[in-house]
Write a structure and sequence with these properties.
Chain lengths: 197, 197
DNA sequence: CCTACCGATCGGTAGG
DNA sequence: CCTACCGATCGGTAGG
């Protein structure tokens, strides 16, 4: 851990969030103390309250922003894409890409939704269900059109989404493959899950 | 939550572990207080120490037993199976099956390894790496033999394993598919990820 | 199995 | 940004 933080740092809300992202992703929400976030920033715990309203607000903003962005990604990805195979490929590619480029956010959303207070938790879970349902319907549509062949579309949709989540667990910026390359690879693997010919 | 626990229960180590499994899986290790486990059992917190040595020991036993069993499952699944496609199918099927039949254990292992103290954490992570590496080598072997076609075997192996983990997130005993049916389904989907012809 | 109690730490506030 | 401090709760122990 970096204990060489400057003795009198000037901190911003973004800086607090940045440290929270790292520590929540590494140790979990309940496993991270505000004193640890403060220490990482080189300030005392009460000073955090000049930048945030509460610990819960940090989690709230991370989860709500991420789940909202995931859904916006999806809608953008399938818009203006007439071919159903291209639509599933595009939807999967942007989801996979996000898990390479926003690893910490993705891990926190996947692990800590239960730690989020209502009503935000319900909203986040609804957005995720919405996303999974949309993926399922893409698979159904493709299967009806003879382009896919997976009648267990709900199982396949969950499997595809979770496969993309795995990226957040191992991806490294300095690895052999770029985020875009990994996303393209996973999109093709996921098409095979749906039974693309 | 069941607050109708008997006023003077007789508790066993197994009963404590059973409640811990449920609460750790629902709220996480750091999100669960021993007082909550005790309340669920209808006893006071200090009485737990007649059955366990510490909270950490509970997590330790769950994670070590599960990761050990996963590896034993794998070895049993590939033993005496000459065909490489059948080996990957069998290895995937038992892993998927475990995630339907041991949902709480699987979720805890996936979420709380970082909450486990060394040296158990290192041992558990090594067992998981071992498993992922073995899956990767199955894919490589099959690709060399012309039975699979996924040169990005490390990516595929992680993806396949994580896909199976997704089962633990949604499977219900009273759902339309049995654990065995779901495991068979996922095994076939995972073979397609590996590029099985 | 219990009551009584421990030191440590938690998130957060008062006041400057 | 700080020091001083709050009540609550944590995991765990003593002793019966």
């Amino acid at each position: 851990m970096n204990d060489a933080a400057p003795p009198r740092a000037t901190v911003s809300p973004q800086a607090v969030r940045e440290v929270a992202l790292t520590l929540f992703a590494e140790r979990g929400y309940h496993g991270t103390a505000l004193s640890e976030i403060a220490a990482e920033l080189g300030i005392r715990t009460p000073s955090l309250y000049n930048h945030i309203r509460s610990k819960q607000e940090l989690l709230h903003d991370i989860v709500i922003e991420t789940t909202t962005d995931v859904w916006a990604d999806y809608e953008r990805a399938v818009k203006d894409e007439p071919d159903v195979v291209a639509r599933l490929r595009s939807a999967t590619r942007v989801y996979a890409l996000r898990h390479a480029t926003h690893r910490r956010e993705a891990l926190i959303v996947n692990r800590e939704i239960a730690s989020l207070d209502d009503p935000a938790r319900s909203r986040a879970m609804q957005l995720r269900r919405c996303h999974a349902e949309a993926m399922k319907e893409l698979i159904d549509e493709g299967t009806k059109a003879g382009r896919f062949s997976e009648p267990a579309s709900t199982l396949a949709a969950f499997g595809i989404l979770e496969m993309c989540v795995s990226i957040a667990r191992w991806f490294r910026d300095d690895g052999p493959l770029s985020a875009e390359e990994v996303a393209a690879k996973y999109a093709e693997m996921c098409l095979r899950v749906a039974g693309a010919k």
